[in-house]
Extracellular solute-binding protein (Streptomonospora arabica), 432 residues
Amino acid sequence: MRYRRPIRAGALLGLAVLLAACAPAQTDNAGTGEDSMEGTLRVWLFSEVDQEPKEKVVDDAVAEFEAAHEGVQVEIQYIPVDSRAERFQGAFNDPSSAPDVAEYGNTDLAGYVEAGGFADISEELAGWKPGEQMSDDVAATARVDGGTYGVPWFLGVRALFYRTDVFEDLGIDTPRTLEEVVEAGRTVRKEKPDMLGLSSGGAYTYGFLPFIWAHGGDIAVKEGGSYTAAVESAEAKAGLELYSQVLSKDVCPPQTCAQMTGNESVQNFIAGKAAMTIGGNFNLNAVEAADVADDTAVIPLPGTEPGSVAPAFAGGNNLGVLSGTDHHTLSVEFVQLLAGKKYQQRMYEAMGNLPTLGGVQSDVAASDADIAPFVETLESGTRFVPVTGAWASIDAEGVLPTMVQRVASGDASVDKAAGDAAASLDESFGGE
């Protein structure tokens, strides 16, 4: 698989996006106020399909930490991602059973903070040198209302995968803009009707959001202490209009693609059924193991102008300190060790996790050409979902996919679908 820059311009948990969990009710989960420097430090990390490589890295970090902290034992527990909502709710309700440190999905954070579950460690991180290597876009995924509730540990961003053999056969240049991506998909579909031009579904939220962001639109804007929907702005509707052209018989027919999720979108590409898809760095291993690997290249998903990159969603996992811990200082120090340069590098080598520290990103991009377009995407600037507990219900109710699907199916115009989605978003924001 190759990393190709656009021809005319001069020339990537398997991390699946974590489903938003329902935020637990506000609780009084304060600990005893003690800050012990000895005893057992309890840590929750997410279990993985292939967990052994992750355990090896974490075990080495634990050994290093224990060697530097006499009288301290670190106890690691791996918890299933699917049951995390119940586990964290129980932890917030009963600090005596809670961990001191936990890995969590960044889209879940706002709800956890509303529940009082995580500690603001802004002050402790202020002098942490590695943190200076983290872009503000990435650092923002651990912030809520001015507080910092952890350290981004690894990320997942998406780029454009495409079939070089198909493009060469049809004389298609590497797309330089989103318009050219759609046009390339249209050409493929016309010349090879057995293929999808661009496999990207109506239920693929993080596949279509870059279209909105690239046009200058957004999901919502924050005014004072609350959010207001922005999907009916002219810019957002321009992105929706262009993405609706993807979900057409000319590129990705609605009967096949309107209900398609992100995983399904990428699977079509892996199976050789599509000329392009919007996939993540976390999909690289699957693509590399497929028959299409030798005929696949990856570039950053282009924006609206040649040379630009469409903003990608910065999904990923953070490491945070529980507010009820009796080992606050030790907890922060363990987070800093595991999220620091050494172990971010080790986690990339073991799991393929995209690092959050700029220096590590540069190192991995220099050593692995396949990861370079994802690092370039990060460097170009990423975006995030509204940082509010309401996002859980918005995501669960499928407000944004419904908007897209209504346009694709012809049930509503862009104006009508965007207006109705805005009303649903504002209702959710108003119920926070």
